[in-house]
Structures are given as C-alpha cells and as structure tokens.
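Quick note —
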Amino acid sequence: MVCEAWREKLDAYLDGELPPTEARAVGEHLRGCAACAAEGLSRVQQKRAVQFAGLRFTPPPAFRERIQKSIAARGPARWSRLWLPALAGGLALLIVSVVFLDLNHDRRSEQRLLSELADLHVATLASSNPVDVVSTDRHTVKPWFAGKIPFTFNLPELQDSPFVLLGGKVSYLNQSPGAELLFRVRQHQISVFIFQERALGNNADDGMQGALSFALRSWSHNGLRYFVIGDASPQDLDKLSELMKAAG
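Predicted structure written out below.
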C-alpha cells in the first residue's frame, strides 16, 4: 500500500503527462524501489506491444505507387470544358490533402520515435541490471561493443566534467542494433543512444527537443544518429552532447 500512490502515477509518467518536478520524483522512486521498477518495466513492454500491434496493418510504402500506376494504365480521360474548372479545383484540394497527410505522417513518425526512445530509457532505469558492461573506463566500454553492433563510435574524456560513465548495452530501434550508453550527472541518469542513420529512415530530425517527460538532444555525424535523453537539466544535456560531438 505504501507504493500505491506512486503506481497510480506510472501511466502518466510513461506518457509524459507529469510536471517536471513530479516526473523527477517518480524517476527517483523507481531507481530505489524494485517492485515499482518492475511494474514500470511491465507497463513499458505492454505499451510497446500495443504500438507494434497498431503498426501491423499500416499500408506498405509502395501503396501510393501502385495506385498511381493503376491510374496511369487507364490512359488519358476525355474531359469536357465544363468539367475542367471542377477538375482543377478537385486536384488542388487533393494536393493540399496529400501534403497535409504527409506532414501529419511525419509528425506521427517522429513522435513514435521519441516515444520508443523514452520507453528504452525508462526500461533501462527500471531494470535491476541497467547495463551489460559495467565500467567507468571508456577504453573498456567501447571495445565491448565490437562485433555486437555494425559500427564503431568514440567516447569522450570525462575528466574534469560532472559526468560519470556507468556502462553500456546493446539496444534495438526499428529492429536495428545500436549502442546505449548510461551516464550519471549528480542524481540523474542520462542515456546516449547511437544508431545507424539509415536504419531510422527519415523519422529523426536534428534538434529534436522533447520526448515525454524527458529532455532530448539529437544530431547526426558520419552516418550515425545520436540521441541524448534524460530528466537532467537541459544545460546538462547540452554539455554532454557537446562532449560526445567533440569525441567524434
């Protein structure tokens, strides 16, 4: 019963509906309560299962191309002059509708990506074993990924910075493997995700700023897409992002 009040906030926490102060409090509780952490992880897994189920019946990308070919195969139609103004208006409306739908699709795709990154970060925080390689030494963490992901990356020198490297593990996004690195700054934990940009398609834009209850930074470099996400201050995320960029 002691944790009942915390668990009532879990769904709002995972959906990004809590104010920042409450979100940080729930995050701190999850890090110290194994039972609530397990419950949070279970809800994250359920949420992701629902997301994947919702994508199961999405029309394939070639759908529009097939429709266009089908229309073209019918040959040119004979339109009377009386119908031409109505046709022109209809085509204009159709073009506006397609552009609007494309923009909405891009926003939904980006929001889905943000949601999945936040889910991965929450799952890491809720896990009793958040990383598979436990080390503060970048020369230990980086080689551990060799052969586990199809790319390499560099880690920054953290001496004289407020950040501590806790370790890393392999994470998956769009069924593609990538690196998740866990850092600590004061009482906050930050995940840095690195994936091949081609595996993410066009769903990620430079400068993505928010994901649910967490702050987020994103950029591309040498074919890799970096995401820095956590409940630390925006200034801390900016500093860690700059360190990662400087490492190349």
